[in-house]
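Action item from last week, closing it out:
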Amino acid sequence: AAPAAGGDGNGATTESTSAKIETDEKLLSVDITLPASLFADEDMTKFDADAYASENGFKSAKVNEDGSVTVTMTKAKHEEMLKEMADSLDSNFNEFVNGENTPYIKEITHNENFTAVTMKVDKAAYENAFDFTPLAIGMSVSMYQAFTEIEYYVEISIVDAATGEAINSITYPDAMNG
């Protein structure tokens, strides 16, 4: 089936070959193809792949016909980037837990590759809030997963902190396509 709509400029994409993340690990380097949706705000006719590689500490970068960009980096750089990105996600999650605007969020936990995230909340306060936290988490995780070998997927479970009862579950990217 043909995709109904392309990327929306906010990281959402329909299923297409450009949305797939491909990792080709060689002996000393890692090649990663970043989807075109990550560059939706860029004028790709003026995109300087060499400058992009240099600015980000990659060995090289090249623009593909579909608008995706393949970057080559050392395995050490790849591991360093993933650790920095995971630490940044944990920091962002802590900001939600400790934030003035989200006092109903009590804890956010995740598995190693961020495909499963659990938000423990004060149920009554959460249900009365107009909360965009799952969307923010979904978008943040998409950036992390773009640099891994897994295709973008995260299931965010919202759970009552007091009882452990499931309140809601949101899966991305499905929620952005529906």
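Closing note: Strands lie at 22-25, 29-34, 60-63, 69-74, 105-110, 116-121, 154-160, 166-172.
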